[in-house]
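hey
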């Protein structure tokens, strides 16, 4: 009996889906007059969906999203430090196990790629990776904000704004530079400045990956013929993949370059001479 009901429900769902698809093909969509090029341009530059920042400035939605994610992180970290961490046990619970796994992953990443100075690096990698992952997932929730024109707009991923991507890339470069200065002084500065294109490549890698996902999703939602089931698959797939891949790539590159410039010069020269002697 249950199997028959399931079969009937599946058939009805399939029939309704087919009818809606046929109707979308035959009927002109209400938003067909909108130019997809203008929508794509606005998704990148945010010319028409500016949001007032406390009545002082009109800013991109990406900045509001960045402030919101940062505030959530600060409140979450404060709550963890006050209410959760003091209650950690020898046999961890689910939340404790999740936190220890995340911290251990980035800590091992720092120790593997930078064996000399990695305490601060591990903390930075955990912070940067968590920020990239959580801020990218913000797109899935579709939080709304009101623009200066009174329209409603969904908050995008903060790093899909070129300004946010450049700031994260430059911040990672400054962390790498600090490792070179602490370990090797002026020599470390010289070794870091050799990679002058590193902040640019980091910034545009994140920006291009997240923006491509946003544009593909915008393109799928624009056409009613593609708006049945496909947007869910595309949005979730692109968002999760970009959140995981970009968080791993940036933290891996930062740890690799940090370990290279923070390696003591004298120790490196001795190692090379020993290898040549052998």
């Amino acid at each position: 009996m249950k199997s028959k009901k399931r079969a009937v429900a599946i058939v009805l769902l399939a029939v309704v889906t087919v009818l809606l698809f046929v109707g979308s093909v035959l009927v002109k969509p209400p938003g067909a007059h909108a130019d997809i090029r203008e929508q794509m341009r606005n998704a990148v530059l945010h010319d028409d969906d500016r949001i007032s920042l406390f009545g002082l400035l009109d800013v991109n939605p990406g900045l509001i999203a960045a402030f919101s994610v940062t505030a959530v992180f600060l409140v979450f970290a404060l709550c963890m430090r006050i209410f959760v961490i003091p209650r950690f046990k020898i046999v961890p619970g689910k939340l404790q196990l999740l936190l220890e796994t995340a911290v251990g992953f980035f800590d091992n990443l720092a120790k593997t790629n930078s064996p000399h100075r990695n305490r601060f690096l591990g903390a930075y990698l955990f912070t940067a990776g968590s920020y990239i992952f959580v801020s990218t997932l913000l797109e899935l929730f579709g939080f709304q904000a009101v623009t200066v024109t009174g329209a409603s707009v969904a908050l995008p991923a903060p790093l899909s704004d070129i300004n946010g991507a450049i700031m994260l890339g430059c911040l990672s470069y400054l962390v790498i530079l600090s490792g070179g200065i602490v370990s090797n002084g002026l020599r470390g500065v010289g070794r870091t400045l050799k990679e002058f294109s590193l902040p640019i490549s980091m910034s545009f890698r994140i920006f291009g990956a997240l923006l491509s996902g946003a544009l593909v999703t915008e393109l799928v939602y624009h056409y009613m013929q593609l708006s049945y089931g496909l947007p869910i698959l595309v949005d979730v797939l692109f968002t999760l993949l970009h959140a995981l891949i970009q968080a791993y790539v940036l933290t891996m590159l930062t740890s690799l370059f940090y370990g290279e410039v923070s390696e003591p010069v004298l120790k490196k020269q001795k190692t090379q001479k020993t290898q040549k002697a052998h």
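The chain has one domain: 31-277. The first strand starts at residue 51 and ends at 53.
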